[in-house]
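thread: overnight batch results

M.L. [08:02]
morning all. the overnight job finished for the chain we discussed friday. pasting input first so we're all looking at the same thing
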Amino acid sequence: MQTKNVFVSLLATIPMWATPYTLAPVNVCTICPSEAVFGIDNAGTLAGVVVGSFGPQAFFGTPANFTVFGVPEAPFTEAIDLIASGEVTGNYFDSAG
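M.L. [08:03]
and the structure it wrote out:
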């Protein structure tokens, strides 16, 4: 509920010339307790991280078709953004840190 109130107050500060957007929930993994979107390109492709029993893994795609991936033997992988050439950028941590 608090997040909703913060969102409403942020909308009140957007100038009148701003482009209207429609916000929609993102469901990458139906059994995962947490997911976050960090990047979106002009085509609507999303990039982010999803956390499940497999640990934090990166994802990219559209709401109709997401791909979840991780760097082999890395306990943490996240996608941060999508660049114009279509590549996904991000971070990972391996056992060495």
